Amino acid sequence: MAKRDRRTAGGAEVTGTCPCGQGLPYADCCGRLHRGEADAPTAEALMRSRYAAFAVGDPDYLLRSWHSRTRPPRLHLDPAQRWTRLEVLDTDGGGLFDSTGSVQFRAHYREGREPGTVSERSRFVRENGRWAYLDDDPG
């Protein structure tokens, strides 16, 4: 049975497999990062944990994992948007010994009965030794 973790909008419990797509229980996967018990070891791990934060409704983690230079003052998540699947398409750098990296992905969601996708190449840099989301690569 999966461990329970109280990290989602409205105080509902998150149980089962992590939304990031790695196949692990949420509490043992991105839940650890969301609770501040661990840091993402790679840019891809940070991107996956950020997707999971959208899926479970954790704007605080999204803001904490955003680079200080590009972080907005606040973030509102749309509760009508249900994130359903993540596809990692490509990574460049972002490893254990890198200082920069990018991850191209496609995130699927539903809003009511309407499906949608977000495609992005996210850029990441280390800030104070930790991976941080910088921005969407416009190129």
TrEMBL record:
Pfam families: YchJ_M-like (PF17775). InterPro entries: NTF2-like_dom_sf (IPR032710), YchJ-like (IPR023006), YchJ-like_M (IPR048469). It comes from the Bacteria. Residues 42-135 form the YchJ-like middle NTF2-like domain. Belongs to the UPF0225 family. This is UPF0225 protein Van01_53580. It comes from Micromonospora andamanensis.
